[in-house]
Write a structure and sequence with these properties.
The structure holds two protein chains of two kinds.
Chain A lengths: L1 H13 L3 H15 L5 E3 L1 H7 L2 E6 L9 H14 L4 E6 L3 H13 L2 E7 H6 L1 H9 L3 E5 L6 H14 L4 E3 L10 H9 L1 H14 L5 E6 L3 H7 L9 E9 L10 H4 L1 E5 L2 E5 L24 H8 L4 E6 H15 L5 H12 L8 E6 L7 H11 L4
Parallel strand pairs in A: 2-12, 3-4, 3-6, 4-5, 7-8, 7-12, 8-11
Antiparallel strand pairs in A: 1-2, 9-10
Helix pairs in contact in A: 2-4, 4-5, 4-9, 5-7, 9-11, 10-11, 14-15
Chain B lengths: L2 H11 L4 E7 L5 H13 L4 E5 L10 H12 L4 H14 L3 E5 L2 H7 L1 H11 L1 E5 L9 H8 L4 E6 L5 H10 L4 E4 L15 H11 L4 E4 L5 H10 L2 E4 L1 H9 L6 H15 L1
Parallel strand pairs in B: 1-2, 1-8, 2-3, 3-4, 4-5, 5-6, 6-7, 7-8
Helix pairs in contact in B: 2-12, 4-6, 10-12
């Protein structure tokens, strides 16, 4: 608890500190490559008879939105005098972004990765090691993201005096959900500026995928008060709605406490956390941010599911129509277009393309071998 | 005074130290678990801590993770454990303390559970992932059922936090010996006696020390500077290493007896 209090105090101090903000903006502009484009997807728009914009977080350095938060937290850790960073990773995107920020800022870096994810996202674990991070395989529990978080927390509490735990999503104990949301809100802020400049009006619908919820809250947060903007969070529907077949916490979960926050969870009748499944490792988490849980309860955000096969279909659709290979996580958000195609004619829609698909090529190839999709 | 406080008064009056072994519920099997508890009681454990297995035991090291996964894989039922404790309690002298992460307790319903625990004769509860800041409401629920919520103090705890814990704590204070998770360690931390003195100066409650105590020798040293010794992973380790041995119970009895004596 003491370290969380210390973190909260420092975060509130530095997030108002001019030099800190200046440094953060410098790296976001010159290193990450912000602002990322808001791209009018003309072929997709023609197909769905509406105006679709893609927020190109896939063009961020390291290939996903995760770096926004990593640069922020790594700069903060440095100000706090921490020399060592630990982090968890599912798909590997957060691990790579953390390892990158640590190389840049000269911090020691240890990444915990579930054994299952280590195998299925092997390009990313290699990248992390090239960036001189130590990658630790986690073989306890379900061997995925939640177990990597458990192990990272155990490391953190053991080495807390010199270590900062750099959580990659809007989960974990306060102040993490708030801090990660703030660092990711740059996505929504930019979208707001860009869409008002291009279209002279706010979007009708925002769509983002939800694992823990960092890219979705990043996009949604600056629009929460704009009541006329519909927001849709898309979760990993996996293979079906039975326990263990999906990772759709906000759709099928019940409230509980995991990793220090009260939110929706996938759990059984005894309060044990259930195994999850999603084709995309980045969505494979049995919890969701506490703020998203709240926004669900008050009805501000609508949450729905997209299954593995629908996400794959969207993966190919965007690749072929727009020449953009999206991450399987983001493919879930893109797949939702088809689901609501009957009600979106003429609408202005922004979808968060949270990451690029390079890391998923092996999974796609495996699928394609089975289904014969590539010519 | 609560049941635990009464017991502590007796223990301290007799100029003894409390010995508190930990057991993961139903590990390695419901039958053996029952025998282990009986043995611990027979050799004179003052309190027995029983851990609810949880899928994500954040504060636990490899050993208790293993025992938790082991039990969960074979199917754990809270109701069945409560039934077991209800019967066990009638035949043992030791006080029962439950250890559980917050989520299984929330799922069962706190008020309902506090009532059930009281019926079973459980006197205390340890919730390692419940921070002081969120504990008021939960403390009240257990208090009104005569169950002491046991607070934990860590080497990183500030003076202010320790004083606040002292104000709220009933039964005893659980002093976490190290910065980190449970599990046996070769050496006790060098700062331990200084840290214990610091906590002692800030509280009037009995202090029991746990985390990392692995041998009778260490248990004796801990007993010298505290009011009680909590041993968990070392016992779970012994059970794990002798899972297929016929003489598991004998070995266990020998080890736990040594621990008791050294405390």
């Amino acid at each position: 608890m003491e370290s969380l209090i210390e973190l909260e105090k420092n975060y509130f101090k530095f997030s108002r500190d001019r030099q800190f903000i200046k440094d953060l903006n410098y790296y976001l502009t010159n290193y990450v490559g912000r602002p990322t484009p808001l791209y009018f997807a003309e072929n997709l728009s023609r197909k769905y008879k509406c105006r679709i914009y893609l927020k190109r977080e896939d063009l961020c350095h390291t290939g996903a939105h995760k770096i926004n938060n990593c640069i922020g937290q790594a700069l903060l850790a440095k100000r706090m005098g921490k020399k060592r960073i630990v982090a968890e990773t599912g798909a590997g995107q957060h691990g790579v972004a953390t390892a990158t920020a640590c190389s840049l800022l000269g911090l020691e870096c240890v990444i915990y990765m579930g054994e299952k994810d280590y195998e299925r996202q092997s390009p990313n674990q290699l990248k992390m090691r090239i960036l001189r991070a130590k990658v630790v395989k986690v073989s306890s529990g379900s061997k995925t993201l939640k177990d990597a978080i458990n192990e990272a927390i155990r490391d953190w509490v053991t080495n807390v005096r010199i270590t900062h735990y750099l959580i990659g999503s809007v989960v974990g104990p306060h102040p993490y959900p708030l801090m990660v949301r703030d660092f990711q809100s740059i996505i929504g802020k930019e979208v707001k500026d860009q869409i008002l400049r291009i279209e002279k009006k706010l979007p009708d619908i925002l769509i983002a995928c939800v694992g823990g919820g960092s890219n979705s809250i990043g996009l949604f947060y600056p629009f929460i008060e704009e009541k006329e903007v519909r927001m849709i969070g898309v979760e990993g529907g996996g293979k079906g709605s039975n326990p263990g077949e999906h990772s759709a916490t906000l759709n099928y979960g019940t409230p509980g406490v995991l990793h220090g926050s009260y939110s929706y969870l996938l759990q059984d009748s005894e309060g044990q956390i259930l195994p999850t499944h999603s084709i995309s490792a980045g969505l494979d988490y049995p919890g969701a941010g506490p703020e998203l849980s709240y926004l669900k309860d008050i009805g501000r955000i609508h949450f729905d599911v997209v299954k593995d096969e629908e996400a794959l279909e969207a993966f190919f659709e965007i690749s072929r129509l727009e020449g953009i290979i999206p991450a399987l996580e983001s493919s879930h958000a893109l797949a939702y277009l088809k689901r609501i195609s009957h009600e979106i004619e003429g609408k202005l829609i922004v979808i968060n393309l949270s990451g690029r698909g390079d890391k998923d090529l092996e999974i796609v190839r495996k699928f394609v071998k089975e289904e014969g999709k590539i010519e | 005074m609560s049941e635990i406080e009464n017991r502590f008064k007796l223990i301290l009056d007799e100029n003894r130290k409390a010995f508190i072994p930990y057991f993961t519920a139903f590990y390695p099997s419901p039958e053996l678990f029952r025998e282990l508890i009986r043995t611990a009681d027979r050799i004179g454990a003052d309190f027995i801590e029983i851990g609810i297995p949880f899928s994500d035991p954040l504060a636990d090291g490899k050993t208790i993770q293993f025992s938790s996964e082991w039990v969960l894989e074979r199917g754990f039922s809270f109701s069945r454990l409560l039934k077991e404790l209800y019967h066990l309690k009638k035949e043992i002298k030791a006080s029962l303390i439950l250890m559980s992460y917050l989520n299984p307790l929330l799922k069962r319903g706190l008020e309902n559970l506090a009532n059930e625990l009281k019926e079973c004769g459980v006197n205390g509860i340890i919730i390692p992932d419940l921070p002081l800041e969120e504990s008021d409401y939960i403390n009240e629920i257990f208090k009104s059922n005569d169950i002491d919520l046991i607070y934990l103090v860590a080497p990183t705890s500030s003076e202010q936090r320790i004083m606040e814990i002292d104000r709220l704590a009933r039964g005893f204070i659980y002093l976490v010996s190290i910065i980190g998770v449970t599990g046996v360690r070769e050496n006790l931390p060098v700062y331990l006696s200084k840290y214990v003195r610091r906590v002692k100066n800030l509280t009037s409650k009995p202090l029991c020390i746990g985390f990392g105590i692995s041998s009778p020798y260490q248990a004796r040293r801990i007993a010298q500077i505290s009011d009680g010794v909590i041993v968990g992973s070392a016992l779970m380790n012994l059970i794990k290493e002798n899972l297929n041995e016929k003489n598991l119970l004998d070995k266990f009895q020998k080890f736990i007896q040594e621990l008791r004596r050294s405390v």
